[in-house]
Here is the input.
Amino acid sequence: MTKEGTAISTHAPRGVGHLRGDQPFPAAAKVALADPQLRRNLQHATTTIRGKSGRVIAELPDWQELRSAGSALKAYTMANLPGLLEQLEEKVTAAGGVVHWAADAFEANRIVTDLVRQTGERRVIKVKSMATQEIGLNEALEADGITPVETDLAELIVQLGHDKPSHILVPAIHRNRSEIREIFLREMPGADPALTDEPSELAGAARRYLRETFLSTKVAVSGANFGIAETGTLAVVESEGNGRMCLTLPDTLITVMGIEKVVPAWQDLEVFLQLLPRASTGERMNPYTSMWTGVTPGDGPQNFHLVLLDNGRTAVLADEVGRQALHCIRCSACLNVCPVYERTGGHAYGSVYPGPIGAVLSPQLTGVEDNASLPYASSLCGACFDACPVKIDIPSILVHLRNEAPHPRSERAAMAAAAYTMDHPKLYERAQRAARLAKLLGKRGRGLPPPLNGWASSRDLPEPPAESFRDWWRGR
Amino acid sequence: MSSKNLILRRIREALGDDPAQPDIPRDYRRGPAPADLDLLVERLVDYKAIVHRVSDISDAIRRIVGNGKVVLPPGVPVEWLPAEWLPAERSPAEGSPARFVRDDGLTPAEIAAADAVITAAAVAVAETGTIVLDAGEDQGRRILSLLPDLHICVLRPGQVVASVPEAVARLTPGRPLTWISGPSATSDIELNRVEGVHGPRNLHIVLVEEAAARS
Ligand code: SF4
Here is the structure.
């Protein structure tokens, strides 16, 4: 049963979707910190991706110019959002698609569920999509008797493991090969008991398991990386080909896209197609990118629906400092450079958007009171800003949001002092060094960089680390 | 109020009366640059594609396909095929079983049963090692290059551009486009790269070079 969205609040509604955790970040982070396997996996993953990404970015002499163009394009898009969305709707409609507008998660789920029901099908194949995870579409479909099948290998591992994604790009990064083998043997119908834990064998098992599903399922649900207003073209960027399967084989395709994903002109792809793969997977180009415009007779799905999703995005837009978070192209580069993420993993953030971008996006989508600890889930070291291919100033948004979060009086005073220092990076760095020299280092909350260590354990002023974060990071 | 009007009203209220209109700096590298074929090949190989630099397309195809069975988009010229395959197309009833089948609306099962597909490309990007298919007559429906495990793409030097901006400028947005960089791959298991989860596990590029230019 789906509940009617009242569409009164501009924030993402409570009780649906995955933008709020069961417990605040500091409590969830403590659990994660006690898991050495998780930390090893995360450290290996983030280090590897950082290295690859750095190498291919260094190949481009104009990376900074591309970042500036990407940043300006996003700012331009936000400033012209109503016109661009209407243009996108007009072009998609002219090309044979149908456009739906969803004010929140309830409405988006109802639209998609109704569309699937109208086809008479009981199963949909899904391309990995942050937007559909955000609104809890799988749960809504299941409640209506429709089976959603995740087809991205990592999402499949997460789905079969009755688990939650922990990274935007590599959602099953918290699992290693032997765990994945066990999940497949337990949950994948027809899995060969002789299956080893070789990655190529595990991938082969997923290929065999999903092939028949791809060929026999008539409805697919996807997200979109870009929707081009000028032409009505949608783009999905992927690696495995499961996206191509979903976007090509079924009769009906339903794409759920956040309203901020619109791109003004066809030409602008020349910027984003250079920024995204290099920042994201550290590849010059991802293995597959699919682009389609409405319906092409004789080629691909003959019914195409585009669902434009608000679900709190207009609330983000209303905040002049915070609205930059809507520029995010979900590359996950900020996760991979974040010392807090590297220690806690994605689950601790409670939302489908983990890491630095999650720390600023989730509280804005839900209203800061529902995710009050997330703006503190950062050391304000600035690494995320430097890594972001569209130059989102995450540290500034964090500081800004800290001022909006409701806290008891004692806590507020401590945080105000901490925020002031951290708002002035030079001062912060000096304070860290001075504290270190004075051997003021305490034992509480070790494992997290400040201010989280101090806050998580004692709610005191941040405790200084043995070496300043910036020193430590540079030395890695 | 419809959700469309509600969302548009919320956006307008959020933006205020006169949101600043930033200029877009376009001082990144754009415009034509010489396309470096060696760089293209290096980048393709780096992505685990197998590259054949040849003057004789049909000979290369014979070597790559071996005994396999091939599907062909409608516009792929028969001249690309080994001569001994051809009688099968004209009268499949007589002689050996057909080595290839042309797509005239084949079912997904028929396409999936083929060992290989041969297509052309619309454009290739040297800097990224990417080929782009635009569903032209010699490339066919998207499904053709998706289901068979081996994709052979015949590329002419004139189709190669240096950079992504040049490729974007050459392509027609209304067509279904598939950008391909190496065969299908995943890194989802402990970040180990594994070729081929769902798309073709083998990508061969036949780069056609004039005999004179190769000597
Ligand atoms: S905030 Fe920037 S770095 Fe982080 S995921 Fe978004 S685009 Fe990537």
